[in-house]
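Quick one:
INPUT:
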C-alpha cells in the first residue's frame, strides 16, 4: 500500500523514492572505487542541498555543478570543492572570484583562447589564481578540443603564464547516450579515457603537470572497465535514472527513483483518453525516448506503488493537462481510472522533469515517511 501522504498531498508533485536513490548511489560509488578512481558527482539533476548530503560525505568532497547558482548555494552549505563544468563566460568571473574569496576551491572550464585570455587578464588585474580545466572533445559531441590539438599547450601556456593553474582536463562522452548495446557503451567509455589520457600526455610532454584527468557520463561511468590514470568520474542522472537511461541499458525500470504523482481529472470515452492534472509544466516537454528502441511518449504510467502499467503512456501534454491514451486491445478501460484516482509517471529525462518542480517529496526508506528536499533555482 502507498504511504497515506502520497494519496492526499496536492498534485502534481515530484516523488523521490529514497531507498532506490541510495542504492543507485552505492552502485556507482562502489564500482568506481573498485576501479581505483573516485566519483565527482554532477549535482545538476536534482540541484538540492538535501539530496547532495548523500553524495558528499565531507565538506571538501569533490562535486560538479552546471550553474554558478548551484555553486553559490552549495558553497553556502559548506561544500568547498566545486567544478563548474560549463565553459566560462568572461562576465561570470567576478562571481567565481567572490566564491574564491570565501575559501571555495572552485574550478572553471574553458576550451578557447578567448576564454583563456579573459581568465588571464582578470586574474592579473585582481591578483587571483584560478584553477582551470581544459575541455577535451572525446566524441565530437559538443565542446572541447581534440586530444591532439596544438591549441592544448597554447591554452596551458596562457593559463599558467598568468599565474593561474592548469588543474586538469575534462572529457564528457555525450554520444554514449546514443548507444544501444553494452559493447557500444564500453567502447565509448574506453574512447573517453583514451582521449583524455592522450591529451594529458601531450601536455605533460610540454612541461605542464595537469594532475587531474576527469571523465564522465552516466552510461560510461557504469561501463568503464579500466580507470587507470583517471583521477575522477563524473555522472549526474545515475542517482535517479530515467526512461532514457533504461533504454540505453544502464538501468532497469525498477531502478528509477523519480516519478510525478498526478490525479485523474476526466475522460474522453470515444477516444480512450484519461486526463490527468500533470502537463508539460510538471513532466517537461522532453521526448528523449522518441528516437530510442522504445518510445515512452511523455512518460510511463504506473500505479501508486510504482508498478508500471503495460503499454500505458502519457501520449500528449498541454500546459497543465496530460493525456493517457489507452491502446487498442488494452486490458484497461477509462473506468479503471476514475476521476480522483492517482497515478505515477516515470519521466523520460529526470533532469528536465526535476527542473519543473521547486521541491521534491521524498518517500523515506521505511516506505511511509515523508521528507521535503528543496531545489536550487536560477543560473
Amino acid at each position: 500500500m502507498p504511504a497515506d501522504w502520497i494519496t492526499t498531498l496536492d498534485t502534481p508533485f515530484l516523488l523521490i523514492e529514497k531507498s532506490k536513490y541510495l542504492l543507485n548511489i552505492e552502485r556507482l560509488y562502489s564500482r568506481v572505487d573498485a576501479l581505483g578512481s573516485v566519483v565527482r558527482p554532477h549535482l545538476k539533476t536534482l540541484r538540492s542541498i538535501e539530496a547532495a548530503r548523500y553524495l558528499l560525505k565531507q565538506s571538501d568532497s569533490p562535486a560538479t555543478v552546471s550553474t554558478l547558482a548551484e555553486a553559490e548555494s552549495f558553497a553556502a552549505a559548506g561544500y568547498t570543492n566545486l567544478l563548474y563544468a560549463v565553459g566560462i563566460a568572461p562576465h561570470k568571473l567576478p562571481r567565481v572570484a567572490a566564491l574564491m574569496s570565501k575559501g571555495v576551491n572552485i574550478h572553471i572550464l574553458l576550451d578557447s583562447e578567448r576564454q583563456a585570455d579573459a581568465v588571464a587578464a582578470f586574474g592579473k588585474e585582481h591578483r587571483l589564481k584560478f584553477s582551470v580545466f581544459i575541455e577535451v572533445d572525446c566524441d565530437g559531441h559538443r565542446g572541447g578540443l581534440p586530444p591532439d590539438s596544438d591549441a592544448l599547450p597554447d591554452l596551458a601556456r596562457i593559463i599558467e603564464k598568468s599565474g593561474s593553474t592548469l588543474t586538469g582536463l575534462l572529457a564528457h562522452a555525450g554520444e554514449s547516450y546514443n548507444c544501444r548495446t553494452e559493447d557500444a557503451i564500453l567502447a565509448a567509455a574506453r574512447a573517453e579515457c583514451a582521449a583524455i589520457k592522450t591529451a594529458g600526455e601531450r601536455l605533460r610532454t610540454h612541461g605542464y603537470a595537469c594532475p587531474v584527468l576527469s571523465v564522465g557520463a552516466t552510461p560510461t561511468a557504469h561501463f568503464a572497465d579500466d580507470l587507470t590514470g583517471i583521477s575522477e568520474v563524473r555522472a549526474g542522472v545515475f542517482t535517479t535514472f530515467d526512461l532514457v537511461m533504461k533504454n540505453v541499458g544502464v538501468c532497469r525500470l525498477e531502478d528509477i527513483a523519480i516519478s510525478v504523482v498526478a490525479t485523474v481529472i476526466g475522460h474522453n470515452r470515444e477516444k480512450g483518453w484519461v486526463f490527468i492534472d500533470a502537463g508539460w509544466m510538471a513532466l517537461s516537454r522532453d521526448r528523449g525516448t522518441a528516437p530510442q528502441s522504445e518510445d515512452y511518449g511523455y512518460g510511463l504510467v504506473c500505479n501508486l506503488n510504482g508498478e508500471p502499467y503495460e503499454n500505458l503512456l502519457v501520449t500528449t501534454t498541454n500546459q497543465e493537462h496530460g493525456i493517457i491514451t489507452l491502446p487498442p486491445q488494452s486490458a484497461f478501460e477509462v473506468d479503471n481510472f476514475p476521476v480522483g484516482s492517482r497515478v505515477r509517471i516515470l519521466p523520460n529525462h529526470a533532469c528536465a522533469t526535476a527542473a519543473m518542480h521547486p521541491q521534491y517529496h521524498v518517500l523515506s526508506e521505511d516506505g511511509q515517511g515523508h521528507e521535503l528536499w528543496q531545489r536550487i533555482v536560477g543560473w
